[in-house]
Write the structure tokens for this entry.
Amino acid sequence: MKFSDFKSVKQVIEKYPLAIHRESFLPNIEIEPPAGFLQELNFALMMQSEIESQMFFREYFIAPFMRHVWMRHPRLKLWVNQNLAYKDELTGAPDYFVARRVETVSHELVGKPLLAVAEAKQEDFIAGWGQCLAEMIACQKLNERGNITIYGIVSTGIYWEFGKLAGDTFTKNTLSYSINHPAQVLGALDTIFATCEQEISG
């Protein structure tokens, strides 16, 4: 089943039962973006029209944040539209996912995935989380470790929501974030990237 076939969290847990929680699991950390980052972000906001494609938001709002934080964590690899599959059961190409960077001799080109990111297309967070949670479950199964925590992000580019999957419990962060406060978005992303690095060190 393709990740995009899941249109809600409810549809996912009907096939993969989970406990659902809400809590504030992200610390209040801010990372001030450089002036050039803000200049490009403000330019994209100023030039945005009423008929932009989904790719516009992904390229000019989601990608810059993901790329900026990735540069702080080179032990990880950020994949873009790369196929990800757990058997024939869960398949597709997440908008982004983060995995361990493969640096040694290995039969794998893609490391074990730790974070999945889905764009909330047409600002539909319900369908966005259905797709993202399916991707998170695939990541969990591919790791073959019961104690690993997988993270998920659903974003329109303007608004960002965060979740995590630990064992059979899916937790959504109670707060969402906006690029009106880019330092908060970068802080949340950096916290998750840092936690992913700790997972591959464990």
Observations:
- The longest strand covers residues 159-166.
